[in-house]
Design a protein that fits this description.
The chain contains 16 helices and 10 strands. The protein is an alpha/beta fold. The chain has a single domain, classed as Alpha-Beta Barrel (TIM Barrel). Strands 3-10-9-8-7-6-5-4 form an 8-stranded parallel beta sheet. The protein has a two-stranded antiparallel sheet with strand order 1-2. Helix 1 runs antiparallel to helix 16. The longest helix has about 35 residues. The protein is globular and about 65 Å long. The structure holds flavin mononucleotide. The site of flavin mononucleotide (FMN) has 24 residues, from helix 2 and helix 16. GO terms for molecular function: FMN binding; isomerase activity; L-lactate dehydrogenase (NAD+) activity. This is Isopentenyl diphosphate isomerase/L-lactate dehydrogenase-like FMN-dependent dehydrogenase. Its cofactor is FMN.
């Protein structure tokens, strides 16, 4: 596989998948300045490297929530994966197992908690969108428990959906409404059509059971939208904390106050995230929010970071600024869209190689030592 970098996969994905799917993956909210800023903020940071250190043996392993992972990064939860590349959830879950990395399955993914738990040998992580209907919310939590999910991520930065202009312009909805433009869009992407023929139409595999079995994809999508809850608050979170017996992580925190409150409410960790620039367009970049959050929660509370991470250097910067672990959203999915399963493996190799090289050039040999690296502000 010749493709390695995010930009290379992005160029290939633009050709290989229908526009409606590419824009859904690639786009952000509003004018997309927040999306651009989430990456630019990483690019602005500079290290002060050390020299004359033996860096022959570099160790990229990292422990989190009681498990030892081969790398300090994993795959963030993505919804509607089956639209971007049919079968992608399985690629992500299988690759995560093969490479000993974590993968977080989304409530809005196209494959069920139970199917992914089978692939992950009972070591899966799951992201919860808290449904407006309490019975549905509780049932999803109970299913995750029964499937042996180790870590539950509760996403809290979607009180309303972000204003994704590209999706609005493309008329993104399920089922895809037939039109000449859409027909041409799909017909001109044969590899994607073939994958669709193999894996089937994109579904909301985790929530379809809560609707009438004869519900159309359109009714399901409406149900999904109606279930996103603007009522999620600290009291609801308390209820979920009481119900969920294992590790609980709050995803989508950007303020030190909310980070402290999450810790005090019994969360086992947080994800500092702008949802990949898909929610509040003018939100602070997660890498810029991180130092104050780390200072607020103290050195021992698990803090993960996502949004804007495009390389191993970015992973190093996130950990140097205070993250324990990093999640990649668009990067692995762009790799699948641009290069299939081989693309995903190539992308992971490239991020890992880049991280290894960055550590060597900084004069350190373990991920832990990143915490001592200087990034002058
Ligand atoms: C296409 C797409 C779908 C997403 N779906 C979800 C989701 O269902 N649940 C969730 O918590 N976050 C979702 N996110 C946000 C990601 O989990 C993650 O926070 C974000 O992608 C990180 O930014 P990055 O793409 O720049 O790495 C989605 C992001 C993208 C790009």
């Amino acid at each position: 596989m010749d493709l390695k970098t995010f930009d290379e996969f992005r160029r290939s994905a633009r050709r290989r998948i229908p526009r409606v799917a590419f824009d859904y993956l690639d786009g952000g909210s509003g004018t997309e300045v927040g999306l651009a800023e989430s990456v630019d903020a990483f690019e602005r940071l500079r290290f002060v490297p050390e020299v004359l250190v033996n860096v022959d043996r570099i160790d990229l392993s990292r422990s989190l929530f009681g498990r030892d992972f081969a790398l300090p990064f994993g795959f963030a939860p993505l919804g509607l994966t089956g639209l971007i590349w049919p079968g992608a959830d399985r690629f992500l879950a299988e690759t995560a197992v093969d490479r000993n990395m974590p993968h977080v399955l989304s409530t809005a993914a196209s494959t069920s908690i139970e199917d992914i738990a089978d692939i992950s040998g009972g070591k899966s992580w799951f992201q919860l969108y808290v449904a407006a209907d309490e019975a549905v919310a509780d049932d999803i939590v109970d299913r995750a428990d029964k499937a042996g999910v180790e870590v539950l991520f509760v996403t809290v930065d979607v009180p309303v959906p972000g204003l994704r202009m590209r999706d609005l312009r493309n008329g993104l909805q399920l089922p895809l409404r037939p039109s000449l433009r859409l027909g041409l869009d799909i017909a001109t992407h044969p590899a994607w059509c073939l994958a669709l023929a193999r894996s089937g139409m994109p579904r909301f595999a985790n929530i379809e059971r809560y609707t009438d079995p004869s519900a159309s994809a359109g009714q399901l999508a409406k149900f999904m939208a109606a279930q996103s809850s603007g009522r999620l608050d600290w009291a609801v979170l308390d209820r979920i904390r009481q119900r969920w017996p294992r590790k609980l992580v709050i995803k989508g925190v950007l303020s030190p106050g909310a980070a402290e409150r999450a810790r005090d409410a019994g969360a086992d960790g947080i994800v500092v995230s702008t949802h990949g620039g898909r929610q509040l367009n003018s939100a602070i970049a997660s890498i810029d929010a991180l130092p104050a959050i780390r200072a607020a929660v103290g050195p021992d509370f698990p803090v993960l970071l996502d949004s804007g991470v495009r390389s191993g250097e970015h992973v190093a910067k996130a950990i140097a600024r205070g993250a324990d672990f990093v999640l990649l959203g668009r990067l692995p999915m762009m790799a699948i869209a641009g290069g299939g399963e081989a693309g995903l493996n190539s992308a992971v190799d490239h991020v890992a190689d880049d991280l290894r090289r960055t550590l060597a050039l900084l004069g350190i040999t373990t991920v832990d030592e990143l915490a001592g690296c200087q990034i002058p502000s």
